[in-house]
Amino acid sequence: MTWLIWRQHRAEVCVLGLFVGMFAVVLLVLGTQAHDLFPGGPAGCAGDAGVNEACAASFRRLDEEYGYVENLLAGFYLVPVVIGAFLGAPLLARELEDGTWQLAWTQAVPRMRWLATKLAALAGVTVALTGMFTAVLTWFRQPFDAWEGRFQYDAFDLEGLVPVAYALFAFGVATAAGAILRRSLPAFGVAFGAFLAARMAVALLARPAYATPLTTTEPVGVGGTTDQAGRRAVPGFADWVIERGYVDASGRRLSGTEYHELEGAANRAGENLNQFLHARGIQRFGVYHPADRFWTFQLIEAAVFVAVAAILIGVVVWRIRRRLI
Amino acid sequence: MTATEFALRTDAVGKRYRKGWALRDCTLALPAGGVIALVGPNGAGKTTLLRLVVGLLAPSTGTVEVLGHDVTASTPQTLSRVGFLAQDHPLYKRFTVAEMLRFGRACNLRFDQGLAERRLAKLGIPLDRRAGTLSGGQQAQVALALALAKRPDLLVLDEPVASLDPLARHEFLQVLMGAVADGEVTVLFSSHVVHELERVCDHLVVLNNGRVTLTGDIDTLLVEHRRLVGPRTPTDLDRSGAVVEAVHSDRHTSLLVRDGGLPPAPGWQAQPVALEELVLAYLRRPSEPSTTVPSGVPA
């Protein structure tokens, strides 16, 4: 069976392996240079962009010299779906479209063992390739994370555990779609569509609700800047801010229109806006998830996608056990 | 007869797809040894029945027993005793012929690599060619060599020659019949072509609209059936219980009867029937016995 699986899927595995390998080499080279900008390591500068002169200089150079890589990498959120769907779509669909399922399942290997071996091998390759891709990317992003935190979409979605879970989800969708549609290419398309829809829905709607966000309220700073030297702002650079705004003295949130009216009033009175707001007891508020929730959120999101993948694989196993194919 | 002396036994087997029943009430007991032909028009349910026999499908009703074992258990032991050649003889198109043989070796308990190589060498099929680049006839031969290398006790073939040109068809049947003569294999194959069956087969199953309309040993069936020709008469003669088909012309009536060779009535002439004629008569019969078959004819 091992030989058969390798022989049948070596083209996909080689292409994906080559792609991930090249990607890793490029990132390792660029990443080493980017890390060298921080003599004490990027973590030492975390949150010090506006505080420590040396760190500020390092971040500036990072942005100037490697900012384009970070922007490019944001597009790599599709890599997990490519890996998962590329390996999952042909698993059953190719056998079904070529009629070779009739050949494969009438040899002496019972179909459930055939299926279990194939699923385990190809899911394993999916995890290995996505894991390698994510490990390199997570390492590369360390300086950027020290600057911007890990809750931004271009960090959270590309680092840690979730990319592997996304890839397994794509693998599950592609395998199930292949079993039902009996064609590789449409199965790949379905996996791609499902991946985009699920990822967007989860990132925008579900992820902020994994835990109750914290709310902080503070008086409007009179000095005109929000960050006073020596004091960390809350929410901080690495926290995930869901909502920001102003409340009046009674604690009621101000709408955009109300804020603009206050702005206009301050202008007419010829007063500094911040002083104007301060004098009226108006406070700033922030609703946010603190940065240390990163791994909790990663675990929750990974569990969601892996669970859906497991359900889809379960459907495939059920169909084949019941000989519905 | 013990259970294992039957190559295949089915009991009230039915298979329903979403669109409806493909096979209903199929009860068969086919002896081991010899060649069994499964005949019926396109869409009669032949492929469904054969897929049930090799365990690719599970029956919606009833049970299928192959070589004394329930096929749905699909243990490696049962699977290795049955060889299957699907319609259009699928192969992994990008595998070389040698890799196809390696596939057979990797996925079977017993696999006679030497036998397969000898067969292919005799046919001049190179082992290093990709399966997809071979001609249709050669692909069929590779698929057959694979199935035979399992040394199966039952070999099931779905329309094995339907897609082949006459020369390839002849060559294929020659190899197949040679294999039957060599070993103790029982062959079950489907066909929608009726002629040539007599030469090749021992047993016949006629399938029409998802139901078995005739089954039996071919020699026995030919002895039991006759064509009677006489003056024009309504169908309901004294033999009405045995009339398979009645054809009326202006002055004559021709009846195909299954009466086991009773002496014909005065004024009637008896003629033997050919197998093709017999099969066609059964295929022409209306399909729903409960509603449309003439009264008194055993369904």
TrEMBL record, chain A:
Q: Which residues cross the membrane?
A: 12-30, 72-93, 119-140, 160-181, 188-206, 295-318
What is the annotated signal peptide range for this record? Answer: none
* Transcription in keyword set: no
Listed A to Z, the keywords are:
Membrane, Transmembrane, Transmembrane helix
Q: What is this protein called?
A: ABC transporter permease subunit
Automatic annotation (TrEMBL), chain B:
A single Gene Ontology MF term assigned here is: ATP binding
Indicate the segments forming the ABC transporter domain, all copies. 8-234
Top-rank taxon of the source lineage equals Bacteria
PROSITE patterns hit by this protein: ABC_TRANSPORTER_2
- Entry keyword annotation includes Ribonucleoprotein: no
InterPro entries in the cross-refs:
AAA+_ATPase, ABC_transporter-like_ATP-bd, P-loop_NTPase
Q: Which UniProt keywords apply?
A: ATP-binding, Nucleotide-binding, Transport
What's the family? Belongs to the ABC transporter superfamily.
PANTHER family in UniProt = ABC TRANSPORTER, ATP-BINDING PROTEIN
| Protein name, entry field | ABC transporter ATP-binding protein
Q: Which organism is it from?
A: Micromonospora parva
